[in-house]
C-alpha cells in the first residue's frame, strides 16, 4: 500500500507550508487524483485517517477529486473525457490517443489558519 507513503509526504508538505506561512493548523487539503495515477482514493483516505493523528493535519478535512482520463485523438483532433479505461475516441473510434490529463496526483488547495 503505497498510499501511506504518499500521505506521509503530503502531511510533511503541509507542515512545511504551514511553517512558512506561520499557520497553526491545517483546515483542509484538496487534492486531485487522476484515474491512471495508480493511487486508490479509498486507500488514501484510510491512510490519511490513520496517519493524521498528532500532526498539524489532525483536524483537517481531506477532499479528493477524481480526475477522469482526458485524451486527444490524433486521428480527428477531438478532445474527450473518458469515464472508462476504454481507449477509443468517442467520435471516430480511433485508438491513436494522447493522454492529456488523469495520470497525476496534485495538491490543489491547502487551507490554513
From TrEMBL:
Query: One GO BP annotation here?
Result: protein maturation
Binding annotation for Ni(2+): 2
What molecular function does GO assign, one term? nickel cation binding
In the UniProt record, what gene is named as encoding this protein? Answer: hypA
What this protein is reported to do is described as:
Involved in the maturation of [NiFe] hydrogenases. Required for nickel insertion into the metal center of the hydrogenase.
Binding residue positions for Zn(2+): 73, 76, 89, 92
Keyword terms of this UniProt record: Metal-binding, Nickel, Zinc
Instruction: Tell me its family.
Output: Belongs to the HypA/HybF family.
Q: Which Gene3D superfamilies match?
A: 3.30.2320.80
Q: What is this protein called in UniProt? A: Hydrogenase maturation factor HypA
A Pfam family: HypA
Q: Which HAMAP family match?
A: HypA_HybF
Amino acid at each position: 500500500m503505497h498510499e501511506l507513503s504518499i500521505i506521509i509526504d503530503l502531511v510533511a508538505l503541509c507542515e512545511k507550508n504551514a511553517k512558512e506561512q506561520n499557520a497553526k493548523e491545517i483546515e483542509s487539503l484538496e487534492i486531485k487524483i487522476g484515474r491512471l495515477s495508480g493511487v486508490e482514493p479509498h486507500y488514501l483516505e484510510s491512510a490519511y485517517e490513520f496517519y493524521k493523528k498528532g500532526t498539524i493535519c489532525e483536524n483537517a478535512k481531506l477532499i479528493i477529486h477524481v480526475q477522469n482520463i482526458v485524451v486527444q485523438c490524433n486521428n480527428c483532433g477531438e478532445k474527450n473525457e473518458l469515464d472508462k479505461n476504454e481507449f477509443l475516441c468517442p467520435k471516430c473510434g480511433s485508438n491513436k490517443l494522447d493522454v492529456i490529463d488523469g495520470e497525476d496526483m496534485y495538491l490543489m488547495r491547502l487551507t490554513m489558519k
